[in-house]
Design brief:
This protein is an alpha+beta fold. The chain folds into 2 domains: 2-81, 2-Layer Sandwich (GMP Synthetase, Chain A, domain 3), CATH 3.30.300; 86-153, R3H-like domain (Ribosomal Protein S8, Chain: A, domain 1, 2-Layer Sandwich), CATH 3.30.1370.50. It is 45% helix and 22% strand. The strands form 2 sheets. Strands 1-2-3 form a 3-stranded mixed beta sheet, sandwiched between helices. It has a 3-stranded antiparallel beta sheet with strand order 4-6-5.
Length: 162
C-alpha cells in the first residue's frame, strides 16, 4: 500500500501548510482511491464552486503521480465533509428538472459553466432519458452543457439556464 501511505503523507503536509487540522481517510475502491477529509474549515478548503477542492485534488494527483512515475496508480478523488456527494445529488436533480423542461418544451437549454467532473454528472443524468441528449460546448465563461431533444424531436434551440 505504498500509494496510500504517500497519499496520506502528501495530503497531510498540504493541509498542515494551509493551517488546517483534519482527519484523513483513504479508501481504495477498484480503480479509484477516495480520500475523505473531515475538518473544521471545510468551506475554505472546498472554495467557491469547489474550486479549491479541485485544485487540491489536482496537486495531490500530480505529486503522488510523480512519485510513482511508470507505475499504474489509481485515480484519486478527494472529498471534504461529503461535498462531492451533496454536489452530485444537486447536479443530478438539476439535470433531471431541466431535462423534464426540455422534454416538455422541445427547446434546448444551455447550463452554467461547470468543471469536467460536474459536466460528467449532468451527462450521465441526461443519458437516462431516451428522448434527450447532452453535449459540452465552449463559451467565453468556460465549458457548458447543452441539454436538447434527441434527433428530430427539436422545436427551437437556445434557452439559457438562469
Amino acid at each position: 500500500m505504498e500509494v496510500i501511505e504517500k497519499l496520506l503523507e502528501v495530503v497531510g503536509k498540504i493541509l498542515t501548510l494551509m493551517g488546517e487540522k483534519a482527519q484523513i481517510e483513504c479508501n481504495p475502491d477498484g480503480e479509484t482511491i477516495s480520500v475523505d477529509i473531515r475538518c473544521e474549515k471545510a468551506g475554505q478548503l472546498i472554495g467557491r464552486g469547489g474550486r479549491v477542492l479541485e485544485a487540491l485534488q489536482h496537486i495531490v494527483q500530480k505529486m503522488v503521480g510523480r512519485e510513482f512515475a511508470g507505475k499504474e496508480i489509481e485515480s484519486i478523488v478527494i472529498d471534504i465533509d461529503g461535498y462531492r456527494k451533496r454536489r452530485e445529488e444537486e447536479l443530478s436533480q438539476m439535470a433531471s428538472d431541466i431535462a423534464e423542461r426540455v422534454s416538455r418544451s422541445g427547446e434546448s437549454e444551455l447550463l452554467q459553466p461547470m468543471s469536467a467532473w460536474e459536466r460528467k454528472i449532468v451527462h450521465m443524468s441526461v443519458k437516462r432519458s431516451q428522448n434527450l441528449e447532452s453535449q459540452s460546448e465552449d463559451s467565453d465563461l468556460g465549458r457548458r452543457v447543452r441539454i436538447k431533444p434527441r434527433g428530430n424531436n427539436r422545436k427551437g434551440e437556445v434557452r439559457e439556464e438562469k
